[in-house]
Design brief:
single chain; about 280 residues; mainly alpha; 12 helices; about 75% helix
């Protein structure tokens, strides 16, 4: 069950990142984040009311609030790092996010077996290579490195926090709703401040209403990924769930290959293969 839900998390996050990447080519990244998360929050609000999720309110929701604060900071840091580039350094470096939940799992006493430890090492190596690391070229700005590390820490923190936000299915819906609502408020405030400083909130051609379904998909896929990760981490070792869930860059790279006909570099293809091998080792270990 842990492997299934964690791999589902990777699929959903990978597709969400792919869709978000396409949308940010047409609209400011902050606007994409706020609108997509807002649509997801609206859908979750309906689900919470329909399932009576408010009855699950309790102190654990503070974990969801914290995750909602960390998420937008991580996303914005990541987008800014990508803008500074090069992507061949930023993307693989962001996979360090897996260190946070794995570290939490080890701190709580989890000790993966020899086969699982090998699977973790192989899978993480595969994910880094699938990001297409830039091995030579122009020097990387220190600010890009710093922003990427902030993003990695933020993503990893969301991994760890969302696991603690609920223990039941209806409670999980409520936790995800609170997380998204917090993200919208945080991101909306950042967007307002950005506009006050003169940055555009919309592309020059105006808001493309035809993009709403895609924005909704990105937001809901991200929410669903948080939910499946929470289930995976609660039903098995966090160390295994976190590593399998971190395979989403492989999905993003394959989606770019399938939908945009982008050619995978040899190092990316090798990384995808290693990630698959690592997944098999973790699943069978």
């Amino acid at each position: 069950m842990t492997a299934f839900f964690a791999l589902t998390t990777s699929l959903l996050w990978g597709l969400a990142d792919f869709g978000g990447g396409l949308l940010t080519r047409r609209a400011p990244a902050l606007t994409v984040v706020v609108v997509s998360q807002g649509l997801a929050a609206a859908v979750l609000g309906v689900i919470v009311v329909a399932t009576g999720g408010w009855s699950e309110a309790g102190p654990r929701l503070w974990f969801a609030v914290a995750a909602g604060l960390a998420g937008p900071v991580a996303l914005l840091s990541f987008y800014k790092a990508l803008a500074l580039g090069p992507m061949g350094v930023v993307s693989p470096l962001a996979t360090l996010s897996v260190a946070v939940p794995v570290g939490v799992g080890l701190f709580l006493g989890e000790r993966p077996g020899l086969l699982q430890a090998a699977g973790i090492a192989v899978a993480v190596t595969g994910v880094v290579l699938a990001g297409g690391p830039q091995l030579r070229g122009a020097p990387v700005q220190r600010r890009a490195i710093l922003l990427t590390l902030v993003a990695a820490a933020g993503f990893g923190t969301v991994f760890a926090l969302i696991t603690e936000a609920s223990t039941t299915v209806t409670g999980l819906f409520l936790a995800l709703f609170v997380q998204r609502l917090t993200s919208v408020v945080t991101g909306g405030t950042a967007l307002w401040l950005s506009v006050r400083r003169g940055a555009p909130a919309l592309p020059a051609a105006g808001f493309a209403w035809s993009a709403l379904p895609a924005l909704g998909f990105v937001g809901l896929a991200d929410v669903a990924a948080n939910g499946t990760y929470s289930v995976a981490a609660q039903h098995g070792p966090v160390t295994v769930a976190a590593v399998l869930a971190s395979l989403y860059p492989v999905v993003t790279a394959l989606a770019a290959r399938g939908f945009l006909s982008e050619r995978l570099r040899a190092i990316q293809a090798a990384g995808a293969g290693l990630a698959l091998v690592g997944t098999l080792l973790l699943a069978t270990g």
